[in-house]
Amino acid sequence: MQNRKPSQLGGMSSAAAFNRGNSTYAEGVTTTTNGVGTADGGESKVYSNENCLTRCVAWGLEAVEEGFGSFGKFTARYPWTVILVSSLICGLCSIGFLRFETESRPEELWVLQGTEALTDEDYVSSVWNNRVRFNLYYATARGGVSITSPAAIQRLYDLHQRVLVINVSASSNTDEFPGKWDYERACLRTGDTCATTTVLDLFDYDEAVIASLTEEEIIRRINNDSFYVLESGREFSKDDIIGFDGDGNIRAYRGVYVLDEHAVERDGERTDVVGEPWEAEGIDIFRGDNSPLETFPQFASSWSEEFGRAIEQDSNSLTIAFIIIIVYLFLTLGRRDKVDCMMGLSMTAVISIGMALAASWGLASAFGEFYSPLHGIIPFLLVGLGVDDAFILVTHYQQALEKGDKGTGYEEAIEMAMRTGGMSILITSLTDFLAFAIGSTTNIPALSSFCVYAGLGVVFDFFFQVTFFMACLTLDARRAHAKRLDIALCCKDGDEVFQPYRSPARGFCCLRCKAVKQDVSTPVFREYGKLLMTWPARIGVLMAFLTLIGLSSFGVNQMETNFRADWFLPPDSYLRDSIDVANEFFTQTTVFDVYIKDIDYFARQEELNSVGRFLTSSREVVPETSDFWYSGYLSWAAETQPYSSAYNASINAVTNATLFYTGLQAFLNSSEGERFGGDIQFIDDMDPVAGIFATRSAAQIGQSEFSGTGQERYEAMQNLRSDLSDAMNYDDARVFATEFIFWERFGFIREELVKNLGIALGVMATIVFLLLYSAPVVVVVVVVKGNSQLLFG
C-alpha cells in the first residue's frame, strides 16, 4: 500500500500542480508556463518546457478532476441514489459467488503450468496410479537406553501390532468404500504383501525371534549388509531404515507404512476418506509415550493438519490486526467533538470495504478463479487500503470546509473533496491495480488467482469509496450541519454558534482524549522537511542511498532460489522434530521411477541395458538404490531352462522373442521375480507374446525437499532427465517423482522475478514520468524502488 497525503498545494488542482512542476524558476524571478507577471509587478521571464505531451497529460488530469467534481456535485445532491446504485452493483457482482470454488491441493496451487514435470505426470497417470500415501515414523532412544537394545526393537514390534489393528470406516462415500478398513485392506500391495518397510523386516516380523533377540544379534543383522534382500524377494537399502550419527554409530530407525489412495474430489478439495481417518489414529500412536523410544510421525495427513493449524494461528493474528485498524478508524476519522466525531461514518467505511470484498470475490469467481488459503490475507490488505482512502476523502472534505469562506456549504465541500481526494486515491489505486494485474500473468496458479482477487479488490475498494462512502459522507455532513449528534441522531446540539469543522472541537467525553493534539503529524513533517534542506542531511540521505544500492547488489549475489514446506510449520509442530531427526541421522533422498511404455521391449534390449547402466551409474542416482526388473530377469533367464538357451551373454539379451516374453511372465511368477509383479503390465495377461504395455523401475536421487537449495534440486532433476535421454529416447522413457512437479518451479522462478519486476518498474516509471515529466526523478524512483525490492528479497 502506498502512503498518500492530502494535497499540500491548497486548492490547486493536480493539473495545475503538474503545469507548475514543469515550469522553470530563475533566481529572483517567478516563472510560469503562461507568461503571467511576477507578484511584485515586474516582468516575468518565461522558461517553459511545456510541449505536446505535457499539455496532453495536463489536459487529461484536468478532465478527470472535472469528472470527479461533477460526480461529487451529483453525489452531494442525490446521495441516496448513489447508495442505491452502488449497492445494486455490489449485489450483481456478488451473484458470481454461485461459481465460487476453493482449491487446496498443492499440485494445483504451486506448480507452474505447462512444465515438463506436468507432462511427465500425465504420461505416468495414463498407466499407473501414482497417488499413494507414505506414512513415515522415526524412532530414537531415550532414558539412557540404546537404540540397538532388545527393548527398543520389542517396543517397535508392539507399535507395529497396534498399527495393524487400526480399523476405521470411510469418513464419507461409504457406498464406494464400504465396511471397516485396517492396514491389510488399505495398504498399497507389492505382490501379495503390503509395501511396509521397517527395521522389523530384518527379523521377518517374527514375534518369537524378536522376543529372544540380544543386542549383539540386532547389531549383527543390521551390519550384515548394506543392501537387504528379504525372503519375499523385496530389496531395500540399509540407509532406508537405519540412521547413523557422524561417527557411524546407529542412532535412529525409520519405518514407512504405504497406503493406497481412496480419494474423492469435491469443490477443489481432494480427500482420502480412508487414509485420513486411518492416519489420524496412527499419528496418535506414534505421538504417544512410547518409552524407551521417542517416536516422531511424519504421515501423509500430517502436513495438511499442521498447515491448517498454522493458518489458524495466522488468521487469529490478522483478526487482531483487523480489529486494531477498525478501532483506530472509529477513534480518529473525525474530530473530538460530539457532532463531528464521525463514528457512524466510520461504520459506513467498514461497510464499503465489505462491499468491495463481496463484489471483487464474486466477480473473480464468475471469471472462474479459485479461492485458496493464500487469499485469506486479502481482507486485511483491503481494510488497510480502504481505511487509508476514507481518511484521505474525509481530510479533503474537512480542509474544504476549514479553508473555504463562510458561504461554502457542505455540498461544495463534498464536490471539492471528490475533485482533489478522488484524484489522489485514483492514481495510487491505479498503480496498485496495475501491480496486481502484472502479478496475475505469472504461471503459478495460486499467485495468479491471488493477484486477480486482490486487483479486483483494489478496483472495487476505490469504486465504493468514491460512491457509497462519499454518499454516506454527504448524509453525515447533512446531519452535522443540522447539529444532530453523531449516532444519536434524535438528539440535537444546543450550541447555536457551533459550525462543523470551523468551530474548535469541544471534546467528546472519554472517547477522545483532550490532552492529545488534533494534528501531530503536520508539525513533525514540517520540521522534517526543514531538516532535509540542510547540507548535513542531504549528505546523509545520499550516503544512505548509496549504502542501499550496495546492500542490494550484495543481496542479489547472495539470493538463493529455495522453498521448503517446513518453513511454514508452527514453531511447536511435531513435524519439525521429525524433520530434524531425519536431517541429523539419515541421508536425504527422493524415490523416483523410470517409466517406459509403448515400445517393442524385445527389439530394444540394447537400450534397456543402457537404462540399467543409467540406474547404476548416473551422477544423480544414489548407489545401490535401484532394482531394475530387466537386470533381474536376465540374471534369472541365464540360469533357467529353456530360457538360458536363448540368452546371449555377449550382448546381455534374450535372442528369441517368444522366449523373451514367456520367460518374463515366468520370472514374475517365480520367487525371484515376484517383487516386480506390480511394475510390469502386459498388453494381454493371457498372451504375454503380445508384448508389454508399460514398465517402471525405482531408484533414489540424492536430493530431497529438506536438503540443499531449490536450484540444486532442479539441476539434479534436469541431470537425471539428461542422463536417461542418453540411454533411451525421452519420449519413450521418463523419470518422475511427485516431488518433481514442485522442483520444476525453481528453474523458472528467477525468470518470473525478473519479468514481473521489470514490468512493474516500467509501468511505475511511465506513470511517474507522465505525472512529473522529470527524467531524473524517474531514475531516482526506479532505482530506489528496484533496489529496495532486491534488498528485502
Could you characterize the architecture of this molecule?
Helix 15 runs antiparallel to helix 25. The chain is elongated. It has 793 residues and is of the alpha+beta class. The strands form seven sheets. Strands 1, 6, 9, 10 and 13 form a five-stranded antiparallel β-sheet that branches. It has 26 helices and 19 strands.
Span of the ends, CA to CA: 18 Å
Beta fraction:
5-15%
Average of the residue pLDDT scores: 82
Rg for CA atoms? 36 Å
User: What is the general shape?
Assistant: elongated
- Count of alpha/pi helices: 26
List key phrases describing it.
793 residues; alpha+beta; five-stranded antiparallel sheet; four-stranded antiparallel sheet; 26 helices; elongated; disordered N terminus
